[in-house]
Specification:
disordered N terminus, 6 helices
Length: 123
């Protein structure tokens, strides 16, 4: 929960946790579909930009919830599907690498969440 404390993005992280627990019901099994879904998340960048510039607070909350949903859902799908097709030791190594990358991303995201405080006089 580093990103919740530092980034202040409570809606995204709360929805992310709910999707982690519910993603066992409907899961993407195709690697191609997972790659397309993961790469299509780049569309959130212009969506957040234009919503911040022209949109309302409700649209920003909706975008944040959708970002949290895709974050939790796709991370669970990738971590469960990626090791398939490999033998035992390779599966363990791949699982360890995936967890390391996931935790590194959470840590870096939490640290980058503090960047908006740089240059301000007060916390």
């Amino acid at each position: 929960m580093v990103s919740t404390c530092s980034g202040g993005n409570v809606q995204c992280d709360g929805f992310d946790i709910k999707i982690h627990t519910c993603s066992a019901i409907l899961k993407i099994e195709s690697r191609k579909s997972l790659m397309i879904a993961t790469l299509s998340r780049i569309l959130f960048v212009p969506a957040f930009y234009f919503t911040a510039k022209y949109g309302d607070q409700g649209w920003m909350i909706m975008l944040t919830l959708v970002l949290g949903f895709t974050n939790g859902y796709l991370s669970v799908c990738v971590v469960t599907v990626a090791p398939r097709g490999y033998k035992g030791p390779e599966q363990n190594a791949l699982g360890n690498i995936l967890v390391l990358c996931l935790l590194s991303g959470i840590f870096v995201g939490g640290c980058l969440g503090w960047l908006w405080l740089i240059g301000k006089d007060t916390f």
